[in-house]
Amino acid sequence: MQQLDLQATFPGLTVMQNEPLAHYTNTKTGGPADWLAFPKTREEAAGFVTFAREHDMPLTVIGNASNLIVREGGIRGLVLILTAMKAISVTDNVLTADAGAALIEATEVAYQHNLTGFEFAAGIPGSVGGAVFMNAGAYGGEVKDIITSVDVLTRDGVFKTYPATVMDFSYRHSLVQENGDIVLGAQFTLAAGQAATIRAQMDDLNARRAAKQPLEYPSCGSVFKRPTGYFAGKLITDSDLRGYTSGGAQVSRKHAGFIINVGGATATDYLAVIAHVQETVFTKFGVHLETEVRIIGEN
Ligand SMILES: Cc1cc2nc3c(=O)[nH]c(=O)nc-3n(C[C@H](O)[C@H](O)[C@H](O)COP(=O)(O)OP(=O)(O)OC[C@H]3O[C@@H](n4cnc5c(N)ncnc54)[C@H](O)[C@@H]3O)c2cc1C
């Protein structure tokens, strides 16, 4: 795999070799990608996908890496980060965004066009592609409530558009988690609203986040999914795990659902804290905490 020279194959494009993904993840942890590229267009992305397929190279696609733990051994093959594909446009009440556009930027553009419906995502630090993949949501709203179609590239290199109805959205789940398609962009249908009301709602949600979440530290947001009938943060608190630390990773004292990097954390530290939390909560309450954060890469 290492003998292939992707930089020579894709002259003029940004391609890096053995690049530490800790430089890109929100937790500031993670091993290297054999190859890392930043396509700026759908065609460039398709070129990398075709190259990987033709050379039997594993291919991983990530967005803003805000819901990701990359194990220390890193990721073999080619990793695409889509954040250079970031156009956002509005026609009437439809907002169209490339996969790499920041979700927060999309909410700002919606506000600038007096469009309501996107406010719930004002503080979610992911990309549009990652938000579609995760069916991201907060404060009673979810991507599935406003999305109307999704543009994808299949692993075979075929461009497709799915109506939202086939996306199989549910709590932190979507079709692309199952079929491996790469999200290239999405369309959101919003409603006409009042700028002042939209701004007030976004500011309120961001203030609530800042009050409750340890935004002053690197993290990957809520580490665990909400178990049916419980709240992960409360189970963790009731298990006396606030402040539990392994190396530089610590269960936040401000919001027990977050694991923060208090300095020098590694992915191994994160995984150790996650395993300890899962084991302790299961022993005490018989509830399995399933991770919401995606854990990828080699040990
Ligand atoms: C402080 C903080 C607060 C957060 N608050 C929330 C919240 O309120 N609600 C919420 O839902 N989440 C929240 N998150 C988590 C995270 O922001 C969301 O899950 C977001 O949708 C992830 O997007 P991303 O671009 O960062 O995805 P990444 O972390 O880059 O990737 C996540 C997964 O999506 C896949 N993926 C990413 N892009 C694509 C693509 N284009 N095509 C195919 N697969 C792709 C990756 O392979 C990976 O499996 C928070 C995170 C942080 C750090």
UniProtKB/TrEMBL annotation:
Kindly give the InterPro entries that the UniProt entry links to this protein.
Answer: FAD-bd_PCMH, FAD-bd_PCMH-like_sf, FAD-bd_PCMH_sub1, FAD-bd_PCMH_sub2, MurB, MurB_C, MurB_C_sf, Oxid_FAD_bind_N
Gene Ontology BP terms: cell division; cell wall organization; peptidoglycan biosynthetic process; regulation of cell shape
Query: Which reaction equations make up its catalytic activity?
Result: UDP-N-acetyl-alpha-D-muramate + NADP(+) = UDP-N-acetyl-3-O-(1-carboxyvinyl)-alpha-D-glucosamine + NADPH + H(+)
Which one of the record's GO molecular function terms can you name?
UDP-N-acetylmuramate dehydrogenase activity
Source organism superkingdom: Bacteria
Q: What subcellular compartments does it reside in?
A: Cytoplasm
Stretch forming the signal peptide: none
The pathway entry for this protein reads as: Cell wall biogenesis; peptidoglycan biosynthesis
Residue stretches making up the FAD-binding PCMH-type domain: 28-193
Task: Give the enzyme's EC designation.
Answer: 1.3.1.98
Tell me which cofactor or cofactors this protein depends on.
FAD
**GO CC terms in record:** cytosol
**Active-site residue list:** R172, S222, E292
Q: Which UniProt keywords apply?
A: Cell cycle, Cell division, Cell shape, Cell wall biogenesis/degradation, Cytoplasm, FAD, Flavoprotein, NADP, Oxidoreductase, Peptidoglycan synthesis
Query: What exactly does this protein do?
Result: Cell wall formation.
Similarity section: Belongs to the MurB family.
Question: What is this protein's name?
Answer: UDP-N-acetylenolpyruvoylglucosamine reductase
